Amino acid sequence: MADKLDSVPASVAAPEDAFELVIEEDEDVQKKAQTALPTKVIVHPLVLLSVVDHYHRVAENTNKRVCGVLLGTSHGTTVDISNSYAVPFEEDPKNPNTWYFDRNYHEAMFAMFKKVNASEKVLGWYSTGPRIRPADQDIHELMRKYVNNPVFVIVDVAVKDNADEIPTKAYLALRSTPEPNSKALFHFAHVPSEIGAEEAEEIGVEHLLREIKDARLSTITDVIGQRLASLRALETRMQEVYEYLDRVARGELPANPKIIYNIQNAFNLCPDVARPDLAEALTVKTNDSLMVLYIASLVRSITALHDLVKNKMMNRAAEQSERDKLALLAATQAIEEETGAAEIDADAVGDEF
Fold first, then answer.
1. Strand ranges in 132-289 using DSSP code E only, listed in sequence order
2. What is the β-pairing status of strands 151-155 and 78-87?
3. For the chain, which residues make up each domain, given as ranges?
4. 3-state SS, residue 335
5. Cα angle value 78/80/82 (rounded, 5°)
6. Residue 112: count of CB within 10 angstroms of its CB
7. For 201-256, how does the pLDDT look when each residue is reduced to its tens digit (9 = 90+)?
8. Are residues 76 and 39 in contact, defined by beta-carbon separation less than 8 angstroms?
9. In this predicted model, what pLDDT tens digit does every residue of 2-59 receive, in sequence order?
10. Are 234 and 164 in contact (CB under 8 A)?
11. Which CATH number fits domain 16-213: 3.50.50.60, 3.40.50.720, 3.30.70.260, 3.40.140.10?
12. CA 13 to chain centre
């Protein structure tokens, strides 16, 4: 049976993305904090498929979540998560301090994975969330026994028709100043994450998407759908920027020079569409691109129509050839019957003489 961390009082008044981790101040923790912290997390498609399969096998149509261990390699400050496996996990929804994470199962599974690929190390753990929960503090501290700075990834397994962002959110436990009457030394901080794949994985994903792709949709429809999804994502990001600046202006949040500097850089990169020459150039470029797509669609339609007509002609030729063969066979049988009747008449006349 796996060990459960002792329940430690913690302050949970912080936002859901900043639950505090309560640990003891010792030399081991200081050494771990001095190691390089990841600044980017790359999640491979195989991991997403494994997490979704785990969820559908264990917790589909329930309010439960599933947890597992993330494997991969680290390159400097970049964490490359290429594999994962499920771990038996249970928690009491009424008491967040009561949970069960099968550590013995995890150690046995990792020993077997290490025999297959020794380069893959434990990088952290995953959960289907869809948000951070108080029990994640203790689970994350448990993973520190296997990796200095574990990565916590929340994978959103909910089906969304208009998804504006990737289904992963990565977090690290960073040292922070404890609040009054609190022993908390760490809090969860967001880390940028992205979906990355090797060439073999890209080919597999393309084949999977090809199976679920609607063949009735044209290339222009796909392009327009992608543009709409991009615009929806842009609108969501602009709304987040607006809400942040509005709260800073009202004094609800302190001004962060780094964030404001990045926002200013983003706006500086936006073209001045009020200039007539630039607007005309953008219009011409857009029209040229759409013209290429339009011509390509016409060529594809004409080619499909040509193949249809050609197939119709080949079918007619095959049917005519079949009819000719049947007619020739019928004529041959008729001639054979006439020849047989003539021979019988000849034999009858010979018998009379």
1. 151-155, 168-175, 186-191, 193-195
2. unpaired
3. 16-213, 214-270, 275-327
4. helix
5. 175
6. 9
7. 888 877 777 666 555 555 677 778 878 888 888 888 899 999 999 999 999 989 88
8. no
9. 344 333 333 333 333 333 333 333 344 434 434 578 899 999 999 999 999 999 999 9
10. no
11. 3.40.140.10
12. 32
Start-to-end Cα distance in the chain:
114
How many CB atoms sit inside 10 A of residue 101's CB? 23
Question: How is residue 230 written in tokens?
Answer: 């991009």
Cα-based distances in Å from 67 to 14, 150, 301: 23, 14, 49
Query: CB of 87 within 8 A of CB of 106?
Result: yes
Burial of 277 (0-12, 13-18, 19+ CB in 10 A): exposed
Cβ atoms within 10 Å, residue 54 = 21
DSSP H or E run through 222: helix 219-249
313-318-319-323 Cα dihedral, nearest 10 degrees: 140
What pTM was estimated for this model as a whole?
Answer: 0.57
